[in-house]
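Re: that chain you flagged

S.,

Sorry for the slow reply, it's been a week of failed gels. I finally had a moment to sit down with the sequence you sent. For the record, here it is as I used it:
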Amino acid sequence: MAPARVSQEELDNRKIVGVNAETVTNVTSTDIPGHYPGEDHEWDLEEFKNNFTVQFHKNTPLDSSFSLIGIDASIANAFRRILLAEIPTLAIEYVFVHNNTSIVQDEVLSHRLGLIPLTGNPAGIQWLHQYRKPTDDDPDGSGVQDNNTIVMKLKVECTKADNYEELDKKGEDDPRLLYKHAHVYAKDLEYVVSGRQDTYFFGEANAIKSVHPDILLAKMRPGQCIDMEMHCIKGIGADHAKFSPVATASYRLLPTISITKPIIGNDARKFARCFPRGVIGLEEVSAEEASREGSGYEGHEGEKKAVVKNTFKDTVSRECLRHPEFEGKVKLGRVRDHFVFLVESTGQYESDELFLESVKILKEKCARMKRGLANIMR
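Prediction finished late last night. Pasting the structure tokens below so you have them in one place:
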């Protein structure tokens, strides 16, 4: 039996998830073998290569947005979960408190320190191995080495400013002017070079430091001090959120808007207000449209009509479906295989590099699965 011929319009319609007033329809992928009689939907690598597309919309060191077009939801979700939980990053894990007379308790301050996003020479962070903690089966673990542990110190003491008496007489009440180290910030963390680390973490630009130097850790007054040593190790977000390299990693399906019947005049203006700015535009009905029989624009030459401008900006609020004047005139949906990603990096990796790291990890997981299957078949 010869494969059935299907129009491109029909194939495109199969990819649309219908968004109705109270329901969502056509949510399941149908491009699988045997779903449509006479059609061959066997997965083909060359076809995937030809159809798969990546489009970048925004790319800054901490924030990127891009589209993956032509993949299945399971693959897109795998990338999202890897971004959140499986890319190794560096964070403070152990805090040794030598002295802390501030009003912030030891455990609270340690928790704040652990959540500070760290950065440094990317090559050096890649060079670091993951620290293996001691367990009942392995009491020694991997031990503290220069290739698995970064040491940092925090040693600050609050004292009166040199011109304290003068400021006090003037009635100054800003503690940051009256005292030294009245506020303890992330920039007060000091990196301690160990062993071979100076090969990678040399100089101020490459040293391990906080991504955001002005993160407030504690407030102190004269006579109070903090003296701590911290050990930073690599971990993954599945172990603790502090190791997650992203503030968020999410995706959405590209919205679609189809105007099936003309929307003219005041209705067009109201229709445009149902969407975020830039999604719907207003254009004049041309003479050719007004003279064409069956167009729906007969006798409306020069009036404003609603047209779809940019569905990328739409949030699919369904506001237009609440109004009876638009009933039967518009269809909302989403493209099932067009995933718009938003990745916000915490700073250890640049946002676009994070996705490449997730691809590497997924490839490694696939390779392990292949080896496991090969061993089973032996």
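What I noticed first: The mean pLDDT is 92.

Talk soon,
D.
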